[in-house]
């Protein structure tokens, strides 16, 4: 029999994170497109990000037939995904266009995120934005697949901090950090130090 889960954060009720999830306003709208394989992931940071931002939405799937409708003309849509054409955040405002950004964020492994772009040509057509080089993930339990590889919630936090400075969105990371601390506690400090500390 499975353990009872919180309906909001979908964590086991005795590990509910809702008390740590903020409710942060932002001018930038965040649309997270989550690959179905990520839904059952132990961290599922995309869900935590969507819950913590008042102006965010999480959609799950591989093909998003309603994508055109979600790319509201009230916003300047861009895709948070690296590439040769990607502009580094923050984006300067465009003359005569004071619309806020709509940040579209694919959530999945790099391979799955690329698949989302392939299956949704409209995504690939969006202007791309990226984060500065040299960022390091706080997720100490996993070796990052490459430099600058962040969990989805980390990438969104950095993007919003850059785009909406001086506003700070670090509070969004509280449930993420609690998850990491919980995993370390579950495995035991000695096991963590032996297997995950840098030599």
From TrEMBL:
The keyword tRNA processing applies. The keyword Transferase applies. Residues 2-188 form the DTW domain. It comes from the Bacteria. One of its GO terms (biological process) is tRNA processing. Its EC number is 2.5.1.25. InterPro entries: DTW (IPR005636), DTWD2/TAPT (IPR039262). Keywords: S-adenosyl-L-methionine, Transferase, tRNA processing. It is an enzyme of class 2 (transferase). One of its GO terms (molecular function) is tRNA-uridine aminocarboxypropyltransferase activity. Belongs to the TDD superfamily. DTWD2 family. This is tRNA-uridine aminocarboxypropyltransferase. It comes from Aquipseudomonas campi. The lineage of its organism: Bacteria, Pseudomonadati, Pseudomonadota, Gammaproteobacteria, Pseudomonadales.
């Amino acid at each position: 029999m499975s353990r009872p889960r919180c309906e909001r954060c979908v964590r086991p009720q005795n590990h509910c994170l809702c008390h740590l999830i903020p409710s942060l306003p932002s001018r930038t709208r965040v649309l997270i497109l989550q690959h179905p394989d990520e839904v059952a992931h132990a961290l599922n940071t995309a869900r935590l990000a969507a819950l913590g931002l008042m102006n965010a939405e999480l959609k799950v799937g591989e093909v998003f037939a309603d994508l055109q409708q979600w790319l509201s003309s009230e916003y300047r849509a861009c895709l948070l995904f690296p590439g040769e054409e990607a502009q580094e955040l923050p984006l300067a405002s465009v003359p005569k266009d004071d619309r806020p950004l709509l940040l579209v964020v694919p959530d999945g492994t790099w391979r799955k995120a690329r698949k989302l772009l392939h299956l949704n040509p409209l995504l690939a057509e969006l202007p791309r934005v990226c984060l500065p080089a040299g960022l390091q993930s706080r997720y100490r339990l996993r070796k990052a697949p490459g430099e600058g590889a962040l969990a989805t919630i980390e990438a969104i936090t950095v993007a919003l901090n850059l785009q909406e400075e001086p506003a700070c969105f670090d509070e969004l990371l509280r449930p993420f950090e609690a998850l990491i601390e919980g995993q370390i506690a579950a495995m035991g400090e000695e096991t963590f130090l032996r297997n995950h500390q840098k030599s």
